[in-house]
Design goal:
Number of helices: 15
Number of domains: 1
CATH topology: TIM Barrel
CATH class: Alpha Beta
Distance between the termini: 34 Å
Structural class: alpha/beta
CATH architecture: Alpha-Beta Barrel
Number of strands: 16
Radius of gyration: 20 Å
Shape: globular
């Protein structure tokens, strides 16, 4: 599988969404009759699409709206929602900054200390609306914030970093004891992000309930440019799903794989499931919603890093309501709306009646799938040519 890239050095070829296509089988199904639900632990969710824990995407109101539509929105506990009593004012500042000012402004605004009382306030506000409250933070804050969020009634907790590993070396701060943390928490824990079979398996061995996979593919993320690291999402998902299946066969515990980042449109989401995902996490598509707190802007989680930002603020615009983007009806022709409808239609066309069957459809290497016959769309920058 690996190719020589020079004397004594080989590299394996990996694949992203634009490199592959899905092949219909010998049966089709009415899209309205396929099952797109998924489960994490003992909880079943109607929609396998999560809104990413990014400040321009998820606020309290957005999390409530997403929950009422049957989906999951993850609130970032390391962001403006827990640093400011009135985050709306701060979000407006970020949206109003020039491209030259944006990163510096975000860095300065995120210097304000996190208030633990605001963690409680935000979780309770979401729970008051009778929808699941799911929150996220970096590993260094997980033990403290996890206990606070759990006490406040949080339903699920996400521990997220650029690169997640079981073995982490640091002398400047206390390293999270993953096994101890998982034992202390009584709610499902999702961890990430990883991209390899080996790390996925190690995190599952520690006892995580779900795994986020993907490093650097997000629309606002610059990790791949700044650090040169990452694996394209199709290969990442396939490898991680293989670890999930191996772990399930040995231990009998099924740990869902959540492909995180790099999906702008329905077709890319469908390909993630075909590669083995149980759910997907999306940022930029939801940043376009009227309900999104970023006001048509979207920025990476590491944009605020004081020394080496690994994200940027991008303008995505506002294209429609959250319901339109998630469930339709779509008012645009590029696949960025009615994401669940796209998944249902793809599954029906492929003959997959549920997510597990979708994971087994035929995938082919077909980079021409994006351009074949699309000369007018590309030339006019419409549809698939945008």
């Amino acid at each position: 599988m690996a190719e020589w890239i020079g004397i004594g050095r080989r590299a394996r070829r990996c694949y992203g969404f634009d490199d592959v296509a899905l092949v219909p089988g010998n049966m089709t199904i009415n899209p309205n009759e396929v099952d797109v639900s998924w489960s994490l632990g003992k909880t079943k969710f109607k929609t396998p699409i999560l809104a990413a824990a990014m400040d321009g995407v998820v606020g309290v109101d957005f999390a409530i709206a997403m929950g009422k539509l049957g989906g999951i929105a993850v609130l970032n506990l390391d962001g403006v929602q827990t640093r400011y009593d009135n985050p709306t004012q701060v979000l407006s500042q970020i949206a109003g900054a020039t491209p030259e000012e944006a990163t510096k402004l975000v860095q300065s605004l995120y210097l304000k200390p996190i208030k633990e009382k605001l963690i409680v306030k935000r979780v309770k506000a979401i729970k008051k609306a009778k929808v699941p409250a799911i929150v996220s933070c970096i590993p260094q804050n997980a033990a403290r914030f996890g206990a606070i969020a759990q006490e406040a009634g949080c339903d699920m907790f996400v521990v997220q970093s650029t690169v997640a590993t079981v073995k982490h070396v640091a002398s400047e701060y206390k390293v999270l004891d993953i096994k101890k943390f998982l034992k202390q928490m009584k709610i499902p824990i999702i961890m990430g992000n990883s991209v390899t079979y080996e790390v996925a398996l190690e995190l599952m061995e520690e006892g995580v309930d779900g795994l986020l996979v993907g490093i650097g593919p997000g629309a606002a993320c610059t990790t791949r440019g700044v650090l040169g690291i990452g694996v394209p999402q199709i290969t990442t998902t396939v490898d991680s799903a293989a670890a999930r299946d191996h772990y399930f066969k040995r231990k009998g515990k099924y740990v869902p794989i959540i492909t995180d980042g790099g999906m702008r449109i329905g077709g890319e989401i469908c390909k993630a499931f075909a590669a083995g995902a149980d759910a997907v996490m999306v940022g930029s598509a939801f940043a376009k919603a009227k309900e999104a707190p970023g006001g048509g802007y979207h920025w990476g989680m590491a944009t605020s890093n004081a020394n080496l930002p690994r994200g940027t603020r991008v303008k995505v615009g506002t294209s429609g309501t959250l319901k339109q983007i998630l469930l339709g009806p779509a008012k645009v022709d590029d696949g960025s709306q009615n994401l669940v409808g796209a998944l249902r239609t793809s599954m029906g066309s492929l003959g997959a009646s549920n997510i597990k069957e979708m994971q087994d459809v035929e995938v082919i290497i077909a980079p021409s799938i994006q351009t074949e016959g699309k000369v007018f769309q590309i030339g006019q920058k419409i549809g698939m040519g945008k």
